[in-house]
Hints:
The chain is an alpha/beta fold. It is about 50% helix and about 15% strand. It has 2 domains: about 60-75 and about 110-450 and about 790-805, Glycogen Phosphorylase B (Rossmann fold, 3-Layer(aba) Sandwich), CATH 3.40.50; about 460-470 and about 485-780, Glycogen Phosphorylase B (Rossmann fold, 3-Layer(aba) Sandwich). The protein is globular, with a radius of gyration of 27 Å. Ligand B1H binds near residues 116, 259, 349, 421 and 641. It holds the Pfam family Phosphorylase.
Amino acid sequence: MQFTKEYFIQEFKKRLNEGYAVDIKQASNFELYQTLASIVRSGYNNAWHQNIKNNAREGNKQAYYFSIEFLPGRLLQSNLLNMGWYDTVISGLKDLDIDFYEVTEIEKDMALGNGGLGRLAAAFMDALASSGLPGNGNGIRYKYGLFKQKIVDGYQVELPNEWLNQGNSWEVRRDSKAVDIHINATEVSLLEKDGHLVPVYHGGKVIRAVPYDVGVVGFQNGCVNNLRLWDAEIPESEEVNYRTLDERRKIEDLTSILYPDDSTSEGRRLRLLQEYFFVSAGIQSILKHHKKAGHNLNKLADYVAIHINDTHPVLCIPELMRLLLDEEHYGWDEAWEITTQVMSYTNHTLMAEAMEKWPIHYIQELQPRIYQIICEIERRYVESLEKRGQAELIPSTRIIADNQIRMVSLAIIGSHSVNGVAKLHTELMKSQVLNDFYRLFPERFNNKTNGITERRWLQIANRELSKVLDKTIGKTWRYAADDLEMLLKYQDDEKVLKEINHAKYQNKVRLAEHVKKSNGLKISPDAIFDVQIKRLHEYKRQLLNLLRIIKLYQDLKENPNLDIQPRVFIFGAKAAPGYHEAKVIIKCINEVGNLINNDQTIQDKLKVVFIEDYSVSLAELIIPAADVSEQISTATKEASGTSNMKLMLNGALTVATLDGANIEIKDQVGDDNIFIFGLTKDEVTAHNQTQDYCAWDYYNNIPVIKRVLDALIDGSIPNIQVEGRHVFDLLTRFNDQFFVLADFEGYLAIQEQVDQAYRKPLAWAKMSLINIAKGGHFSADKTVQRYAKEIWHIKPVVEKDEAKYDSYQ
Length: 809
Ligand code: B1H
């Protein structure tokens, strides 16, 4: 049946009445939302079911993306868009006098991730389905998403994010697919069974992993893939072993929180258990499926590609080995061959402190058999290097060292592909941090620059600009992101440039309304909206931005008539709960904001807005309103960045260091349409090698730096006695690990250019247009298509066929 507006209205009324016994006038937004979601689900369920059946019947090779984080945000609008129902539903609801956008606000963000890494995993889910590729996600169904951030007296306060309280409309619990996981055995012994020696686990406990599946709807192609998130439960047969509430709670806790407190050994053990839990559940489930389809495990790599997203799921490697050896009775060599053919790994960071290492005894306690297998992988690896005459590479690349398991080593040794997430990152991986591995296995290393879900960031988030695009270049860009380049023809067309500026202005008005409500602060859409939105981390250098704000404020205090373009500095950032320095920086941003925002003498030329509880949904509001995108990490530190891509696609101009994917953005838009400054990777590397950097020299010799830093400690910014001193010390006594002071003057100079450029609205709009036009380059569709072709060797199984979602019952 064709999904028409009339049909939708009739169905909507019927379901609302059946579900809630109310009519439209009485219904709450929650009831309206649930009703709408149920119609959407019914619209894709059949395609979902068919897709699973087809893949099994045709024996299509499938990718499984294992990630400890998935950060999809809200799904209602993107499902509607992907199904091709968006306009019909909006118009139907309008006829019913319902405000669609108000209804969408009810949905809680699915925030099962911290930042870029989790968002990338969600983008890849969407892109796989939208490319008709058979790809599944495998992760954890956390009861609490990423913490809810409140700012109290300028400090970050973390509150639980109970996103599941009102249920999740998009998930389906699949009891029949549950699997059991054995942990904490105290001993493993070998027993003969059916002519094989099999390990028998003594002691320990069994946990049941129950999957909740979320349908991932492809963009107007009828392809619905599966995102499988696991929850932990106590199996009925084991109930007597969990007698106290405390023991039961331990199991519930397993999937409660996204990032358990890693300052205690209990928290760290819990995190490791989470890693093993979703890995074991996922791999068991894949093998079951494979065997049920009647395939031989010898041929696993013809049907299955398993992707390890950062090292968190690396236990995939020993777990698959365990199942092949112990349950399927393969010999080591054959099992290893299968495992390495199936596994591939993405590295997302080269920061030493983020490289996972686990104490041996944690893994031993978790599962002694897994530890045995890791030891054997290590033993054979060391032996093979000795045989190859490359013993000198053993210490730096071996898996077990200093009583710790190095997860990166395990990942690289057990995979056939290792990729970085931007060209520079891959180059640094090969030439510096993982160079010894690169010398051993050059063929494994490759680059896959990140991408973004352009449909969400443009079609859904920026309807104003989308309308301008439709009018100017037609609608093909909605399907093929590269067609945005057609816009280049209009770079000197005054009418189009004005329309682009106007769209931006309307988005700024919308954001200003939000800021008025949330922060009680009036900001003018005529000012430059200068945006830095990302996790708070010293290497991302929110501090560099803040120091410049202080500098501008000092200049204005000296000369209130200073001719600068009014600017609103907008921050959105969460700090990891245990990351003290990051929290100190948040406090400083807020107090500098308080001082500036309440000072009448500077005539509203500066405002500082810290938008609390930054999320995917807030990003959808902020990004379309941004004029300037701050991408100012210390060169070599940001593996890729993805907000840089979202912001350029929405016409913001980037102020950037030559780091991560900023470099590729520059290559796309050209030097004239981006503002580059700062130390290069070679300069940073040289400072690190020679240890010649002296932050005190900058403080003592450069008056503008001294003046700004002194403001942190001389009481001129109220309420940061402790925090101001802390930041001052980080930048001086602790020698400014991220070269903030070295880059400060370059940053001031480039921002002066931004100030000048903004004064010429048409020239600015032209640069903005070029950024939008080139934004299509960073579509996640293209990125996953490269993974599909070059790493996973999977092929599209669904061709574009919009009609499929219309088989609506
Ligand atoms: C990225 C992480 C990360 N890199 C450890 N590494 C985590 C590491 O909970 N943990 O233990 C969580 C996250 N996240 C980001 O990945 C990079 O910093 C970005 O530059 C990159 O764009 C993003 C996606 O590749």
